[in-house]
User: Fold this.
Amino acid sequence: MKVNGVFISYVSENTEIIDRLCQEFKSHSIRVWRDRDDIDPGSRWKQAIRRAIRQGAFFIACFSKEYTARDETYMNEELTIAIEELRQRPTDRVWFIPVKLNICNIPDRDLGGGETLHDLQYVNLYEDWSASIQRIFGVIRNTARDEFSRGFKRIINEKSLQGIALSPEEIQRNFEQAINHYSRALVKTDDADVYLNRGVAYFGVNRIDEAIEDFTKAIQLVPELGAAYHNRGLAYCKKMSPDQAIEDFTKAIQLDTRLVSAYNSRGIVWLFLGNWDNAKADLSAARSMGVDIIANFCNSYKSVADFERTTGIQLPEDIAAMLTPPEA
Assistant:
């Protein structure tokens, strides 16, 4: 799972301790965005900072007595940008993390809605460095996992499933009726197509474990049934098992080259795993075979920006362009 850089806001007097903090992040495979390291020569640095704050997975504001002593500092501008961004984000998701590097006061900045920065729980790094670092890592891991999960599950829906006897629209109208219909049929026959379709219906009512059981049974009965592998891969996506999903999508493609939606599905999972080369290859293949990858993507997300905000994943420019509707 790839997460956008954690933006760290601080004053230059605290560079030494920030260096140590960044090393902690890097040792836990958490990417850090710092102005001195991530702004290319010749870039408009104010624009780069504003963009990095808004696209960052988290904003960590490092307060200190050195910050308080400063009459002027660009950290104040970073805080203003971050607070503007925070106001637009859901209140039940952590994004802005205040940190005290030493004994100091956190400014009483207005957050809107009657709240100030004092209403955000801060972390005292100077009291117990190791314990405080673990608290920060815990918040980042949990929040990133929750947002990843929301986004991952959102991109997969029953419209992607491969069914046989009933159209997706018919199954969607009455999932429970479809389950009953296919369950009655299975009393009389052990048919792979019936298991496949009941699995689709189970998927539609979010009974994912039962869907996986039916897709697996269909595979056992007809090992060359590519649609069953594809559908089970989608179910594994719902279960947050991307490696198993990739394995099933790959098998589906090997068994049935006409199953072009499997390329699209696998490409989307590669996006969530941050494997950009594979994602681009699969999405390109799906597009070349007639899949409207932009329409499929926009069925789940309003735009690339919506995807990035929801999942905390920043797409490379070339892939973002592939998934962006052309201007009218």
In short: The first helix runs from residue 15 to 27.
